[in-house]
Amino acid sequence: MENVQIIVEYDGTAYCGWQVQHNGLAIQQVLMDVWEKMTGEKIKLAGSGRTDAGVHAYGQSANFLTGSTIPVEKIPYAWNGNLPPDIRVLEAKIRGSDFHSRFSAKGKVYEYRVLNRAQGSGLRYNRVWHVRQPLDFDRMDRAKEHFIGTHDFTAFSSAKSEATTKVRTVHELVLSKEEEEYVFVIAGNGFLYNMVRIMVGTLVEIGQGKREPESILDLFEGKERRASGITAPPQGLYLKKVIY
Hints:
It catalyses: uridine(38/39/40) in tRNA = pseudouridine(38/39/40) in tRNA. Substrate binds at residue 110. The chain has two domains: 2-95, Pseudouridine synthase I, catalytic domain, N-terminal subdomain (Alpha-Beta Plaits); 107-243, 2-Layer Sandwich (Alpha-Beta Plaits), CATH 3.30.70.660. The chain has helices at 27-39, 75-80, 137-144, 195-207, 215-222; strands spanning 2-10, 46-47, 56-66, 87-95, 107-116, 129-131, 149-152, 167-178, 181-188, 237-243. With 244 residues, it is of the alpha+beta class.
């Protein structure tokens, strides 16, 4: 049996998320079902972590044990020939027996996109968060610096989070503007449930003038979810890369 890692790109619009669930079709389920259809082999596909319904990925990482005779370099072609067009396996490689997509990960990089103009987009409505009110780049840029470092992110975590500790390290947070879109790229050693979306929601409220850039420090101190910003919607979020 070989331990194979794959990198998967997907548009999460039509799915209930990455992980198999009872309430809808998951990306993980589609991949496993297609593999069984191709090879007759049932696999357990372990992902680096969940992405919610509507969230996208440039580079989700997953691994599985297989006895298939398909050469590893041909696995993406075989899978993609049978997958729906909104899921693609970009690469496959053989890993050691101790590799696990989730437990071997040292960090992740997420991207979040905000379309900031009066009218929404007919082409990108499932790919961005549309915010009508003008945003102040400088205010958001100042505020984002407070996130960098090791902090207790309780105020930026959903009440559904089951993590035993809310302390996480954000290594980098870059804000840029691409025409009418604000792009947030956030790299860290790990992320709590909805953490990126709450961080972005809070930064957008700062950009709208609803709270001050320095209020981030008070939120870390207070550790109250209700005091921080809204949870940005899922469609603007992308898992960019898993770091090993």
